[in-house]
Structure formats: C-alpha cells, structure tokens
Write a structure and sequence with these properties.
heterodimer, A: mainly alpha, 13 helices, 74% helix, 2% strand, globular, B: 529 residues, alpha+beta
C-alpha cells in the first residue's frame, strides 16, 4: 500500500515536469504578453525595456531553467499583469471555485442518486421514463445556454435570485465562504445548479444502470428469499454495490468541475479560478497559466489517488498492491 | 447592497464613519450608492504599474493628474491650474492650492516630482508609464506650488503626457509595493473617491472623499463590479443587480433602447478602426495572383490600388448592418472631437466601378488574392467586420481570405509583420500623436512609427509631424496636425473604416456625461429629474 502510494507520487513528479515544459513552450509559441499589455503610444525603446524587464528577451531554455530553479525553491513567479505572486492569485480565487464545485457535486448526488435508483427500480413507470428523458436534456443542453436561460427566468423575469456574482463571504476556518449567509446562498444556487446539470444526468444514468444490473444478481434474490425488507435490500445491498462506479465518476468529475467551471464562472461573473485562467490566457500571463495548470494537475493526481484508496474501502476484493502488474 | 465592505474590517469601519457623517448631515444627504458593471478585469490599484484601460479607469476615481481631459478628450486643468512653456524645452505647471490627499496632507510640487519619477522604478511592468515620463530630463520645484519640467528637445506633448501620470502621495507611496496599493495602504490620491476595498477579479468598492477640492461626487458609495461577459453584464442590468453598464454589446442596443426602464448614452469614441497594408516587401506575405502564382510586385505600393480598396468598402453599410449604428464612417485617424481632427476630410465614397477601373489602371484588371487578418475579441464586432470587408473586396475582384485570431496571438504576429493586410484600432489624444505612431517612418532610434505595421514612409509627412511636435503654441500646433492629417490621408497609408461609438446603458433615472475616451467615471453619473 505504502509502496503503491510512493510509486504514484513519483510518477506525478514526472507528469508535472512534462506539463510545465509543455505549457512553457506553448505560451511562448502563442506570443509575447508585452505586445498585448503595452500602451499603444509606447515607442520601440519602451517595448524593448518592458520585454527585458520581464526577462522575456532571454532564450526560451534559459527562461525555463530560471523558472525551474525558482519553482524548486517554492516560487512559481510573479504574474506579469497583476504584479503579485501567481500562487497567491490562484489560492485567493480557489475557495470560490471549490465552493461552487462542491455545491454542484452535492446537488448531483443528493438529487441524482434517488432519481437514478427510482428509475432503476421502476424502469417502465411514467416517473422512470420522465427521469431518463430529463437526464438526456442534462447531457445535451450546453452549459452557457442553460446558464443564460436560468438568469433570464429567475433573475430578469421573476426577480427571485441575483443574476451574477458571489454573495458576501464569512471566514470558516480562515477560508472565506459564502454559503453560510442567506444572501450568499441565493448567489450560489443558480451557478451551482447550472454546473451540476451534467453530473446530475451522469449520476442518474449510472445509478439506474447499476440498479437494474444489481436487481437480477443472486445476492439480491437471496436477500429477498431471506425475507429482508425492500428498503434494506435497496438501501444497503444495492446501494453499496452500485456506488463504486459512481464514486469513480464523481471523483474524476470533481476535478473537472474545478478545472472547467470556466463557462459557468464567466456567465455568472463568479470570481473563481476559471475566470482568472481565461483572463490570464488572453494576456499570455505565463506565470499564472503555468501555476494554475500545475495546481490542477496536482489536484487530478490527488483525486485519482483518493479514488483508488476509496475503492479498497468500498470493495474489499480490490487490493491496491495488485495495481503493480 | 448588503454585501458592501464585507470581509474587510477596515472598510467596515470606514463605512461606519461615513454612515455617521451621513446621519449627522440629516435627510438631505441620504446614502446613495451606484453599482456599475465594468467590462474588463482590473489587475492592480497601483496607478503606475501597467497602463491598461481597466486599471486607468479605476485610477481616475482615486487619483488625478496635472492635466485632465473633458468629455471631448480635450485637455483641461486638473491638479495644475495652469501651464505654459517658459522656453521651448521648459514647461511650467502651477498647482491648484489647498488640494488635500485622502490622508489630509496637502498636495505639493514634491508629490508631483515623486510621481513623475516613480514609473521608471517599476521595472517589471509589461506596459510601463515611462512613455510619458522619459522625455522629461530634469525637474525644478521653485516653490511648493510650482513645478518646471525640462525636455531634451522642444516637445509640445508634455501637458498631454502629464494627463497619463497619476499623482500619488509621496508619503504614502514611497517604497510601496503593488500589494500596498491593492490593500489601500498606499492608494492615497486626491480624487473624488477613496478606495474602500479591492476584491481582485470581482469588484472595486469606493467611498466618497468628503475633502475633495472639486464639486462633491453625487454618490456616497460606488461599486465597480467586474463582469467581462457581455451577456452577463446586460442581464445583470435587466435584473436590477446593476445600475449602469459600460460597453453595451451592439446586438442588445435595440432591446435596451426599446425598454422604457433604461436609458442609453452614446458618444463617438476615440477608437478608430482601419486596415494597415504592407508597403515594403516584395511580395508581401499571403498576397498572390488569383491562381496562387506570385504577383511579381507589391500591389499595395501603388496608390491607385490603395484608393481602389478604399473605394470598394461600403462604410455606411458596415455601420448600419454590422455595427447596428454604433459607429460613424471615418475620414481621419482621430475621431471628430479630438485635437487635430481635420474636418475638411470626407469619408471615401463607395464606388465599385471606380475601384475596378483603378485596379485595371494599376495593372491588376483581374484583381489578386490576399489574406485579411483581424482579431476576434478586441474591437466591437471585429470578426464580422472582417467578413463584411472581404465580401466587399470580392465585388471589385480582390479575393480576401479572412483569418481571425484571438488577441493573444494577433498582436504578437502582427508586430512580427506576419500579415500584409491587418485590422487595427487606435485611440489617441491628438492627430499628430496618432500619425507619429501609425504612419511616420518606422525608426526605432527616434521612436516613430512604432505601430506602422505596413512600414509606410513619406518624408514630407515625417517633417510636418516632427514640426507639430516641436510647436509649443497650441493653435499653431493644431493647424500643423490638421495639415499633416490631410496630407497623410490623401495618400491612404491605411484604409480607414469607422470611429466606434462608446455606449453606456443605465436605469432611466440616471444620466451619464458620455466620454470620447470611453472611461466610465462614477462621479460623472447623475440623477435625472
């Protein structure tokens, strides 16, 4: 188990190195941030000096080694556009994104699991069919469109919810969160729902398919023969057995939610990391882009590891040491 | 606005004090707040760090400069009451007396000298303000309220350049980092508002400065919400989450105009759109015969070809259809209210037959093929304009393949001269300034033609613009700038399109003194009766 974890962590270091090199070369190939941020009235001398000041006049390999040296010392560089450490910028925005992603995941589980179970238990009922039809919509409607429609209906026409932005924040263990106040919740509900739709549909489908499969298994028949109540069969035995694929998917999707909440954050002007990365790409703010992607890659690595560990908890038959082969 | 000042105890205290003041002032001073939706992210409160519009827009609330510009982009007194050239290389500025910084200290010439020196010390700026401070080679402060700025050569732009140098408090800003400005510690200016809270990527909260030397700002509190997405900005206005927004997307103009709850304010902006054409390479990249074979010569060097392209464009159609009326056809590199605009020039008339004839005379009866490059996220409807222009060019026989790119790659490649025919938008304080950057001969040593992508060169134009720059008498200089503009435009070094209109949308009961420089200033919003 320990060997397994260490091996995984070593692999991660290689991934991070490769990632940083790719981003470095990629951003370099796109262009020069000074060309975008320089004042139009600047003359050639100003432009040269700005490029020099940021160290962009050096050859790419030299820039990369400077970056690596500093990164090993824990410094991922200062943002060109903000003039503050890139890590600080990202960490500052992270709570907003994580809050949004967590709320979306909770919505997906809390609504998706019961609906999926229901659809699996009663696949031919009207309710079951409606749930499945609804899940198709969740898959296929584009996020940005649903987001705009939500705003049009609930903010513009009904005036129930604020159209955009994050509500007031209160510190919870030092992290600013917005879900503790009523106004904060009102700001959170629409973007979280919008972000949750895809995963909600996913959970419904997984839960339904798993349930239908489990219901014909021997252990369910045996449980019935033993005279267990239906609630216990579904609530304990079926639920436990269908949870493995769901945990995998939700775990992986949680990473995606954080990394790709960009669309929702843009539409709802949610001050999270997604908005930061888009703005940074637009002005080629390399330190922020590199730091952001490194953090996201790390996040995926950690989540994958946690999912693997969770497996062995949920299913005693899975041994992590086996992953060596 | 229940969320104002949350999360920062200092701003809470500040608002507490304000609330008390308001309470003491009685019902006449009932708290009024204004929420404005801004179109781009503010990266820093440090007014000397990077010269980009969103940062400057916030800076204009907190800080001021020696000279200001009015709604027509014309120079007016700011912190300097008056200025005059003592000799061709010395400008003297007389400071307004009794101006106090937000910390109560009086503004003196020393603060001004400090503020002029500071941009050069910020070496990691990707867009430094040194453009405006570098020409000044020496400073003198004969008394507390006078400062003299010396330049190496006669230079008429000093008062204009001083409009871009924000005056900070020496006491507060000496040794301050960008973060010190962001937290508000060093953000001590003389402006009508003081910084209450800067929440990066989200909002800037401002509180009225009661000791302001000018007319009191009409709003106790201002929230500048950063909502870069156009659709989100409009819906936030429709949902009453915002009182006003800037940069209204043209697609929504009609809808907002038709809604009685809202009002639009428009003004011709200083941003002019045009195409640059490669006039120095043989052959320019991407320009070939229609069969793909090389042309043998650069068509854009022939003034008849440039005239033909200018005539091929139906500017009014672009303004009406693509821009939904939010533009005016251009005949100048600078918009009508701007210094040095030559009113005698008229936009090129749309003339397909004339354009074909000119192309035939120039030896291209069958036209030619080229690539038309444009950004797709920089100017209002830039990619649609590029498509429309390509179709208009097709009618006179020029096959233009449209290549639109996001800003991040576009500017780098354009400055690398990868494009023979490229869209560019420009905002300038004055005609001669625009000419210097855009059409004067490219010369890195003299700092001219820095954005002359086509490398157009005209010796008599160079002489005239240089002369204008050295003329410290404003009226003579404007005459020279106009003459230079007329001379340049007659040769069509670039193909002009239109001047954008800047648009603000707001609740019916508000009004805004719309500005040519496109800045959204909370203190210029008023309550309409």
């Amino acid at each position: 188990m320990l060997v397994y974890v260490i091996r995984r962590l070593l692999q991660s270091v290689v991934v991070l190195l490769a990632m940083s090199l790719l981003v470095f070369v990629g951003v370099y190939a796109i262009g020069n941030p000074v060309d975008i941020l320089i004042n139009p009235n600047a003359d050639q001398e100003d432009i040269e000096r700005a490029i020099k000041g940021l160290g962009l006049d050096k050859p790419l390999w030299e820039q990369y080694f400077v970056f690596l040296r500093q990164a090993l010392a824990g410094d991922l560089g200062k943002s060109f556009a903000f003039n503050v450490p890139a890590i600080q910028l990202i960490v500052e925005r992270m709570p907003a994104t994580i809050e949004l992603a967590t709320a979306a995941t909770l919505i997906a589980i809390v609504f998706g699991l019961p609906l999926g179970l229901w659809a699996g238990l009663k696949p031919r009922s009207a309710a079951g069919r409606t749930i499945m039809a609804g899940s198709i919509l969740g898959f296929s409607l584009p996020t940005f469109w649903v987001g705009l429609m939500l705003i049009m209906v609930f903010s513009v026409h009904l005036g129930w919810l604020p159209s955009s932005g994050r509500g007031p924040t209160t510190p919870l263990l030092g992290v600013p969160v917005s879900f503790l106040s009523w106004d904060g919740l009102r700001h959170l509900v629409m973007p979280a729902t919008n972000l949750a739709l895809f995963n909600l549909a996913l959970v419904i489908r997984l839960a339904r398919a798993g349930t239908r499969e489990a219901l014909v298994q021997d252990y369910v028949k045996f449980a019935r023969a033993k005279g267990l109540s239906n609630a216990r069969i579904v609530g304990v035995h079926v639920l436990k057995n269908i949870s493995i694929p769901i945990v995998t998917v939700i775990g992986l999707q949680f990473g995606s939610l954080i990394a790709f909440a960009i669309v929702t954050e843009t539409i709802f002007a949610w001050p999270g990391m997604g908005k930061l990365i888009i703005d940074s790409i637009n002005v080629l703010d390399r330190p922020v882009i590199v730091a952001y992607l490194l953090i996201i890659v790390t996040l995926f690595i950690v989540i994958n590891l946690l999912v693997d560990l969770l497996y062995s908890v949920l299913d005693p038959r899975i041994r992590l040491a086996d992953a060596r082969t | 606005m229940t969320d104002i000042g949350n999360g920062d105890p200092r701003s809470g205290a500040l608002f507490g004090c304000l609330a008390l003041l308001v309470a003491l002032a009685g019902p006449a001073g009932a708290a009024e707040s204004l929420r404005i939706g801004m179109s781009a992210d503010v990266t820093s409160i440090d007014p000397h760090f990077v010269n980009i519009t969103p940062n400057n827009n916030v800076a204009w609330h907190i800080f001021e400069a020696l000279t200001h510009v009015d709604a027509d982009a014309r120079l007016v007194p700011g912190l300097a009451e008056s200025w005059r050239p003592l000799d061709p290389t010395t400008w003297e500025f007389k400071l307004r007396r009794g101006v106090r910084f937000h910390d109560g200290a009086e503004l003196t010439a020393e603060d001004v000298a400090f503020s002029i020196d500071r941009p050069a010390t910020l070496t990691t700026s990707p867009g430094p303000f040194t453009t405006f401070t570098r020409p000044i080679v020496a400073k003198e402060t004969p008394d507390r309220y006078t400062i003299r700025l010396k330049t190496a050569a006669p230079y008429a732009m000093v008062p204009y350049d001083m409009n871009s140098v924000y005056i900070v408090s020496k006491k507060a800003a000496a040794g301050a980092t960008t973060e010190d400005f962001n937290t508000g510690k060093a953000a001590i200016g003389t402006g009508p508002y003081r910084l209450a809270r800067f929440a990066r990527g989200d909002r800037v909260e401002l509180a009225r400065y009661d000791g302001y030397w000018g007319p009191q700002a009409p709003w106790d509190r201002v929230v500048l919400r950063i909502v870069p997405n156009e659709g989100a900005r409009v819906t936030a206005l429709l949902a009453d989450d915002l009182d006003a927004i800037e940069y209204v997307p043209t697609a929504d103009l009609r809808r907002i105009r038709a809604t009685p709850r809202f009002r639009l304010e428009q003004k011709v902006s200083w941003r002019t759109l045009f195409f640059t054409l490669d006039q120095h390479r043989e052959p320019p990249p991407g320009v070939t015969g229609k069969d793909g074979r090389p042309l043998g010569r650069n068509p854009f060097k022939d003034p008849r070809v440039r005239e033909a392209i200018a005539k091929a464009l139906n500017r009014q159609a672009i303004v009406d259809r693509v821009m939904e009326g939010a533009a005016v056809p251009a005949a100048n590199l600078v918009a009508p209210p701007v210094f040095g605009h030559a009113a005698s020039l008229k936009p090129e008339a749309h003339d397909v037959a004339g354009a074909r004839k000119l192309l035939a005379e120039a030896g291209f009866p069958d036209g030619f093929a080229m690539t038309l490059a444009a950004p797709n996220n920089r100017y209002l409807n830039d990619d649609q304009i590029a498509q429309a222009v390509a179709q208009m060019l097709a009618r006179v026989g020029i096959d233009a393949k449209v290549a639109t790119l996001p800003l991040a790659t576009y500017f780098s490649r354009a400055r690398n001269l990868d494009f023979a025919f490229a869209m560019l938008g420009w905002g300038s304080f004055s005609g001669d300034l625009a000419l210097r950057s855009l059409v004067m001969t490219y010369d890195a040593d003299r700092g001219t033609g820095a954005w002359n992508w086509g490398r157009y060169s005209n010796a008599s134009l160079d002489r005239l613009v240089t002369q204008a720059f050295a003329t410290v008498d404003e009226r003579r200089r404007e005459a020279l700038a106009r003459e230079a503009m007329a001379l340049a435009m007659a040769d069509r070094p670039v193909i002009l399109l239109h001047h954008q209109l800047a648009t603000w949308a707001m609740r019916r009961e508000l009004g805004y003194a719309a500005r040519t420089d496109e800045y959204t200033l909370a203190h210029h919003f008023r309550r309409e009766r």
